[in-house]
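Exercise (ungraded).
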Amino acid sequence: MSRCSLFSLPVPAGAPQSGPPGRHLGHYPSLPPGYNNTPASQGAAPPMHPPMQTAPSQYPPQPQLYQQVTGASRFSLPLQGNTPEALRVVNLLQERNLLPAGPIPAPTPPLPQDLQKVNCNPEVFRCTLSSIPQTQSLLNKAKLPLGLLLHPFKDLSQLPVVTSSTIVRCRSCRTYINPFVSFLDQRRWKCNLCFRVNDVPEEFMYNPISRSYGEPQKRPEVQNATIEFIAPSEYMLRPPQPAVYLFVLDVSHNAVETGYLNVVCQSLLDNISALPGDTRTKVGFITFDSTIHFYNLQEGLSQPQMLIVSDIEEIFLPTPDSLLVNLNECKELVQDLLKSLPHIFEKTMETQSALGPALQAAFKLLSPTGGRVSVFQTQLPSMGVGALKSREDPNQRASAKHLAPATDFYKKLALDCSGQQVAVDLFLLSAQYCDLASLGCISRYSAGSVYYYPSYHHQHNPAQVERFEKDLKRYLTRKIGFEAVMRIRCTKGLSIHTFHGNFFVRSTDLLSLPNVNPDAGFAVQMSIEENLVDMQVVSFQAALLYTSSKGERRIRVHTLCLPVVNSLTDVFAGADVQAVTGLLASMAVDRSVSASLGDARDAMTNAAIDSLASYRHAALTIQQPGLLAPACLRLFPLYVLALLKQKAFRTGTSTRLDDRVFSMCQLKFQPLVYAMLMIHPTLYRVDDLSDQGALNISERTIPQPRELQLSVEKLCREGAFLMDAGSVRRSCNPSFLTQVLGVPDYAALPQNMYQLPELETAESQRTRAFIGWLREQRPFYPSLHIIRDDSPQKGDFMQNMIEDRTESALSYYEFLLHMQQQISK
Amino acid sequence: MVLFTMIARVADGLPLAASMQENEQPGRDLQKYQNQAKQLFRKLNEQSPDRCTLEAGDVSFHYLIEHGVCYLTLCEAVYPKKMAFGFLEDLQTEFYDNYGRKVPTVTRPYSFIEFDTYIQKMKKSYIDSRTRRNFGSINTELQDVQRIMVANIEEVLQRGEALSALDTKASNLTSLSKKYRSDAKYLNTRSTYAKVQPHLCF
């Protein structure tokens, strides 16, 4: 039986979909008969499935639900005596409370302690399998994807920086010296990636930290898995470029209507001194509607000069050297422009949008230096090159067509940009269809980012405005690296074959990143080309070479070391369920575009089925009934189901095409931590916050409520709940109303409430402390929606209840039954 | 017209500041010239002439050395030498005032990259024809630029290579002669044994 799987070679488009009809989830008529008999649990009715009622002790009455602890050992099957926790057998059909009380940590690889102590932080660098299988056939047996997930430019609180005239690297594979190399003697070290023996240079014998001689093992390079080097001049093709920021703003009638221009200009005015850079920093502005407007900001002018180019067929720069100006010297002119910009176009009647020519102009302007272009767009581009037509037909949404770009203009331009070290970030603020699938290419291949604010309007959508303001602040002031490249190396025998994220792959394994930002994540897939026999451990190294905003060329190196194992049980024991889910999501996005959404959905479902089937048949010695999973993978079916219900992959006609495409973009370029929040939001009950078990961070008490399952059964009328889904949402209750929300009764609660009043009550302080703490943990500002039980926004809240059944998708329990059926086939 | 400008420490050729090339001209590979400039910095030493023009086809390098810092610019060959050296003198004064004392201690390449802003400003004022007239008077005060040494960049860069080639050849000869010596010794002993052996048999 040939079956659709993500690990096999991509199915060519148009090839018949493989797999029996029963495999296709979401096609209800084709479900096995027994399946449809499960009573539908819709709305707020607590889902009680017949098979589960046989074990009532696991389902205590509602009010005690959230006090229940997951310790869960009393549910585990006492079959395999001395197995590690990761391999504890869990019968998913019986064990309901799978979520741990707090965040799920990455598995710790079974390495000797001295190696693990210096290993790379899993938030920066982690592998889907924290124990690497010895052979490809073993990997194939496990049916789990092998890949790395990286967050290479993450903001770090502590980072050792080394300046030395020679950076010690392997002479044959160019690996940077790292904690996992071995020293044969004082003068020679053996590379851990290609095993070549290298000489230790004289300079390396001296340790600048301890100021001692003759201890190369004590150097910071050999003590830290994450380190940054100040690069010598051999690492520069040209003098380091200055920080250059160009803003390209849509000023058509539609754009002015949304009122976004005020926010952008104000935000820039507020943060202009906080833009990363030095005295060389340059800025420039372009606005566009049916024509392109440039702004001469040259020193000495009394006010900014607007230059209009109406020939959009062949775009040219009116005065090439005064459009991009030194921010320090022309700050006043820039501020003048920012103050007047929103007013210039107040009364515009121009509805057309020549985005393509505006981008060409931006490319021309930046190509001598490189830098960052920030494009703000509010509608479908309608004029000049790159004009697009609406492809979305609301009746055809279910088929999820048009995930691929309509034109290659944006990709080609992005590649030109990449060649000149220019990255394009796209801010899309629109209520209408904008064809993000096509527009997004401009950022994807130039290593930019995409931000999307659907239905942005300054009056009608205040929550969106707040989020936009906060996001802009973060965007403008966060760290940035220019003219960057990243290379990922791994031990001989392993090979990297597919990359995920926003970049352009230059020369097989070199990622070209005109800009790199601290909120960008990457993933790679790997295969095992040669058997890793005789190897105890393998290593992976990611090196990111970039120019800082201060004109310093730097290299950030991360090295990860993992053990090699030769038994299937050990491979399963090391599975990192979040990393697996993250990589699977990226692979499924590719599959949706190259084949079809249905194909991608099947592939994800099969990934869960296959891995658990393989675990059952090959790793378990004693067969027992039920749907069995090792403890480390117990959340895998839940995460896969969550992915199937994600905007990116869900079926049905409710998902707009742009929303779907944006969700796909996010899954591909967000670092794993943030992607996981999106995939599986966390739900807390917040009307009974207490200081018990609270965290204490710099004299603030942060309550730590436990995470609840995403099911309506966890909600109740008298509770108030907080859902952390990237944007924080909450639903509501009574004593809570007066103490925290500051309203006398439920009826007085307004429909649209986006902030918590600052009350002097203990409850209010606790709640605000907790929400504040959640917000601090992520770079972008999640907006807070206070949702009443009868509010129209309740739908958004309920959509995230992924364990419940919806019109077009299975409940968690139904999904488990489906899996079990497939496995026991 | 000035194409690019670089400033480096003479002692070790460490680049200190540079001006990014602008208005990239079609058909001219500035990268090649930048590499030549970097090689040149490595060749320079105490004995190098402190003012020199190096021709490279339709462009010329001009450099001057002052206080252990080399100021180099690449210009079109037709660009007046007088102007080029006037430009370099200006840079030198400004650079020395601002960073002169820090030069010997820095280790990071392009430590003074922020000087780029000043270089660009100067470059612009030298391009501007109106201000050009004003510079005319200053330039006459400069030493007679005609006396500045002119050489070819390829020759200068290869001079070192020829020397190092000679060096390697010489060392090759030494090792060969050593080998000859030891071979000869070995043969000598062997022939001695051969002579002595028959005697021992008796």
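Further reading is listed at the end of the chapter. For now, observe: The first strand of chain B starts at residue 2 and ends at 9. Chain B has two domains: 2-161, 162-202.
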